[in-house]
């Protein structure tokens, strides 16, 4: 990838790097432009006492579709998805575990999911410290990128997830992170 960088007796030579750097810059800018130009809508989730910014393509997922996408009875309490279920957002508020800190939750999850090679990034959402954990799983017909937010309020452990098939990465990955970071508690 960095073949354009070579060492010489006078230091680093940036031979042929200009094209490479221009392509990388254009890619970064286009990703940001796509995410910032996407139409987002504010959804008030009264049952969980919060609001969130969602891509306009996501709507409340019908119960029958939610049961297929999340077959466990421990599915998110509120689920939004696009028409065919290739992109979804789910969120739950659970009673906060006693004497447990958010870093302990993250460490336990990272250990439990180690075979999925998860990556964790610290975030602050509406003033609360949290973690976004990303990993890829195999779905029935496609690989799925899972972006999961874990944070604690004074009373609750909040788990929000934004999932997309790998074919939707270029369109929704930045929007997924934007969604997870947009949660505001009422």
How would you briefly describe this protein structure?
This protein has two domains: 37 residues; 146 residues, Protein Transport Mog1p, Chain A, CATH 3.40.1000.
Secondary-structure map with pairings?
Elements: E1 6-8, E2 11-13, H1 17-37, E3 40-45, E4 50-55, E5 59-60, H2 63-69, E6 78-81, E7 87-95, H3 102-112, E8 119-125, E9 128-138, E10 143-152, E11 156-165, H4 169-181, E12 184-185
Antiparallel strand pairs: 1-2, 3-4, 4-12, 5-6, 6-7, 7-11, 8-9, 9-10, 10-11
Helix pairs in contact: 1-4
CATH superfamily of the largest domain: Mog1/PsbP, alpha/beta/alpha sandwich
Q: What is the total tally of β strands?
A: 12
CATH class identity of the largest domain:
Alpha Beta
**Radius of gyration of CA atoms, rounded to a whole number:** 19 Å
Q: Which spans have pLDDT < 50 for at least 5 consecutive residues?
A: 1-36
| Strand neighbour order, sheet with most strands | 5-6-7-11-10-9-8
Quaternary state of this entry equals single chain
| Proportion in helices | 25-40%
Roughly what is the average pLDDT, rounded to an integer? 85
Number of domains: 2
Approximate shape: globular
CATH topology of the largest domain: Protein Transport Mog1p, Chain A
